[in-house]
Specification:
Number of domains of chain B: 1
Number of strands of chain B: 10
Low-confidence stretches of chain C: none
Distance between the termini of chain C: 41 Å
Mean pLDDT of chain C: 83
Structural class of chain C: mainly alpha
Chains: A mainly alpha, B alpha+beta, C mainly alpha
Strand order of the largest sheet of chain B: 6-1-9-10
Shape of chain C: globular
Strand content of chain B: 35-45%
Oligomer: heterotrimer
Number of helices of chain B: 3
Strand content of chain C: under 5%
């Protein structure tokens, strides 16, 4: 570990390359867009309250060395199913959110178990597997929601169901729970609304994560993340620990999705969850996290920078070239580009570290031989 | 033995969560109550609509209904207070108030003001489930 | 005795062929058997299946070189597709018409494919072990990057650019008058009213497949397989691993470029912008259905896989529609294709690296 410190500074710069790049993009984009600072700040606050919870769900699998959990979309699906039921039963307000969360949790646990088990079979390529699993479960989700609901699963609210008699409509109006959490305690500073309650909930999750790291299970997870074999020889149930980390992540993602959608106010039944994984991962990486290391600070910095770029770029594109479309493509490109870049940097660093370790091993052996 | 204890704790926790979920459903259930000021027949007697009446549901802003008017109130939860203010033939203001329990499973109910004034204790006479029959098909 | 050997043989066959493949094969067979009973014209379906087979098989073939060199499944196929799109649009821009345009599109696409493939290969060499995830995102980000380029590049052919502004390419461009159906109609065999055999497409595929097959059996090709299956041994033999891998990536990218051109000439449209975004997944799952694994693939896998996969895609909508009056083909496609990829990724025997 000592040897890495000199390289640590270097890798610190390398890690923050993405963040620095984003700072540059934003500082060019903001003046070009011509948005007022107060507008930008209020937008950022909205997005912080909307997205932070979802992104926090990514932290625990990273701790367990399972990389970026693209399988968080499974949790998002569970959350959406909860919301569909709540809307069907015509329950509204905060009780509706709580009820939706309670419905989503068992589904999330089930899906998380499944995801964890599958990822245990694909050690070393968790990310791509969880990514494909997201697609796969999207098919199952469509099967349930588009064909099962209204035919096998009773849905009595006709305004939710497609005209053909079964399947949920493409958009579900969440008027009953819209902004119910955000507007519970509203604080207004300089005309900028701050949804205090949402931030309190987010803070609670942060506290949970900090606390969790210190528990026995959290320690085990970190050990597993460091080295599975060492952890196993120390008597840690590696597979089980990994499954638990994914289950927690999925459950948090489910709740996060409910918070996200209560802010948006409408559910795109077949689209809302598909992009969530990608945007959350990109935001986290922009905040300076890597595949193997992430903390709470990364989440918030990431949301701010990533969404600043998101808000600014269409307008900047329009003012610069006269096409808002260009700005929109630009932000899609940047989102994917960021993930690519972070992944590449991470793999390169891992390779270098492996090489360094191998050299060290050889040196040690050499020393042993001399003895 | 230990597993047993754990099992019981888990079972209790799950039951508590389910009970809590049911509570949430009760507390958060939304009903649409149609407030109706029309002639209505109750037990064979024809009750006339009032020419003008004011009605307040829970703490929502009060609504004023003329003859044959219908308005709606969205309410959350299971028991609701109805506060009806009207003038009788002698131009004396009469205020009626009643807490009513709403059937849980009904999304939409119709509340007849003339029937309410006629007999405040006979809940079935003025609060009835409302089915959308003609609109949907 | 006789019985046992037959059972053994069946067991061997199942083990060799894999359960998912057998299930999918039986499913497709059921669909074909059911088709006449529910009023679906078998000739049309067969013809459609063959046509779609021809459209997609080159893109599936593009998986082979990279799997051989140990770069894993080529989720970065969109990069090759972009090279093909550049070739196709350039051929139209310079107003080549008819079969010439197809040839020119292939020629124009080649340098792009080589350059892209070279850069992509360089990148993949730096991230050995994590190729698949990075390949996915290389594909995505290059598609997103090209979205901007399609808007900005100075194309001017009025059939391709937006009418009212005169700049920026359209989202879909018709290949009519250029290379529409040049391969489909080449020596096409028409049997009866509903059945057409698109000979040209099959000839091109046969040619490419033969070239790849021959290449894989050449000295360079065996070196590639060695790199993929046993890098340590390959290094000991004096094979330049990085160079071999780059060569395989270039080949894959080039095949991807040709693949999309073949696809377009039959489909009739060039789909730009987000069009190529999810094109890698069907190709990946097709080769996996055909029996390939993350580090082993053959031409047979390509043919079997494409046929099974495209067969299901063509048959499910028509048959399912007639049976249960609902079109569940989209869901089936998602579940089958991604399920197949998951299956391949989670197989214990392959988690060696």
């Amino acid at each position: 570990m000592k040897k890495i410190t000199s390289k640590g500074i270097k890798s610190l710069i390398r890690n923050n390359l993405v963040t620095v790049l984003f700072l540059v993009i934003c500082s060019i984009g903001i003046p070009l867009s011509g948005y007022s600072p107060s507008y930008l700040i209020s937008e950022i606050i909205v997005r912080l309250s909307r997205n932070s919870f979802l992104i926090l769900s990514l932290l625990i699998p990273i701790m367990a060395g399972m990389g970026l959990n693209f399988g968080m979309t499974l949790g998002a699906m569970a959350g959406q199913i909860g919301l569909i039921f709540v809307t069907d039963w015509n329950v509204v307000g905060i009780p509706a959110m709580v009820l939706a969360i309670i419905i989503s949790i068992p589904i999330s646990i089930l899906l998380g178990q499944l995801c964890g088990r599958i990822l245990n079979k694909a050690k070393g390529r968790e990310m791509v597997t969880s990514y494909i699993l997201g697609f796969f479960m999207n098919g199952v989700y469509q099967l349930i929601v588009l064909y099962g609901m209204g035919s096998i699963i009773p849905i009595k609210n006709t305004s939710l169901v497609l005209p053909r008699g079964y399947g949920i409509r493409n958009t579900v109006n969440l008027i009953g729970i819209r902004r119910s959490l955000d507007s519970l305690f509203n604080l207004s500073i300089f005309g900028i609304k701050i949804p205090l309650m949402t931030f309190i909930v987010i803070a609670l999750v942060c506290v949970f994560i900090v606390w969790f790291r210190k528990t026995k299970l959290g320690q085990d997870m970190r050990a597993v993340g460091q080295d599975m074999e060492v952890a196993a020889s120390a008597g840690i149930q590696v597979e089980h620990t990994r499954i638990v980390s994914i289950v927690i992540s999925t459950v948090v993602a489910g709740i996060g999705m409910i918070i996200y959608l209560q802010n948006i106010g409408t559910l795109n039944t077949y689209n809302s969850h598909t992009q969530i994984g990608m945007f959350s991962v990109a935001a986290l990486l922009v905040g300076g996290a890597s595949v193997s290391k992430a903390n709470i600070g990364n989440v918030f910095l990431g949301v701010i920078l990533f969404h600043l770029m998101f808000i600014v770029s269409p307008m900047a594109g329009k003012n610069l070239i006269g096409q808002a479309q260009l700005g929109e493509y630009f932000r899609v490109f940047v989102s994917y580009g960021v993930i690519t870049m972070s992944l590449v940097l991470y793999e390169m660093r891992k390779k270098r570290e492996n090489l360094a370790n191998a050299e060290k091993l050889q040196e040690n052996q050499g020393a042993l031989n001399e003895d | 033995m230990r597993i047993n204890k754990r099992f019981y704790i888990r079972a209790v926790a799950i039951i508590v969560v389910i009970l809590f979920a049911i509570l949430m459903a009760f507390v958060g259930k939304q009903h649409t109550i149609l407030l109706d000021n029309k002639n209505i027949e109750v037990n064979g007697a024809e009750l006339k609509a009032l020419s003008i009446v004011e009605i307040q549901v829970d703490k929502q802003p009060s609504l004023e209904l003329a003859k044959r008017d219908r308005d709606q109130a969205l309410v959350q939860g299971q028991t609701h207070t109805f506060l009806v203010t009207y003038n009788d033939e002698n131009w004396e203001e009469i205020v009626l108030e009643k807490k009513v329990k709403v059937p849980f499973s009904e999304d939409m109910l119709i509340f007849s003001i003339p029937a309410f004034i006629n007999d405040i204790d006979d809940v079935d006479s003025y609060l009835q489930p409302f089915e959308i029959e003609n609109v949907s098909e | 005795m006789e019985n046992i050997t037959i059972i053994d043989r069946i067991r061997d066959f199942i083990k060799h062929f894999g359960w998912p493949r057998i299930i999918i094969g039986l499913f497709l067979l059921t669909l074909f058997v059911m088709a006449p009973f529910v009023g679906v014209n078998i000739n049309t379906s067969l013809s459609d299946t063959l046509n779609r087979f021809g459209m997609n098989c080159v893109m599936v073939l593009a998986m082979v070189p990279m799997i051989h060199s140990g770069c894993g499944l080529n989720f970065g196929l969109p990069l090759g597709i972009i090279a093909g799109l550049l070739g196709g649009t350039l051929a139209i821009e310079f107003n080549f018409i008819g079969p010439t345009s197809f040839l020119m599109a292939m020629i124009f696409a080649t340098p792009f494919a080589v350059i892209f493939g070279w850069g992509y290969g360089k990148l993949l060499n730096k991230v050995k072990g994590g190729e698949m995830m990075i390949a996915t995102y290389v594909g995505f980000s290059s598609v997103a990057f090209m979205c901007m380029m399609w808007l900005l590049l100075p194309y001017s052919n009025p059939t391709m650019v937006w009418g009212y502004t005169g700049r920026g390419l359209r989202t879909t461009i018709s290949t009519e008058g250029y290379y529409l159906h040049v391969l489909n109609d080449f020596l096409a065999i028409r049997i009866g009213e509903h059945f057409v055999f698109p000979t040209g497409m099959f000839l091109l595929f046969a040619l490419l497949a033969f070239v790849i097959w021959a290449f894989l059996h050449s000295k360079k090709g065996t070196a590639m397989t060695a790199v993929g299956s046993n890098p340590v041994f390959a290094r000991a033999c004096g094979i330049d691993i990085d160079k071999t891998r780059i060569l395989s990536v270039i080949l894959s990218t080039w095949l991807g470029a040709i693949g999309i051109l073949v696809y377009q000439q039959s489909f009739g449209f060039i789909q730009l912008y987000m069009g190529p975004f999810f094109m890698a997944l069907p190709a990946v799952s097709a080769i996996l259905i055909g029996g390939a694994s993350v580090n082993k693939a053959s031409i047979t896998n390509v043919i079997v896989g494409t046929f099974l996969f495209q067969g299901i895609l063509t048959m499910t909508p028509s048959v399912m529609n007639s049976v249960i009056q609902t079109d569940m083909s989209e869901v089936i496609r998602i579940v089958v294709s991604n399920g197949m990829i998951l299956y391949a990724l989670t197989r214990k025997t392959e988690a060696t690296r």
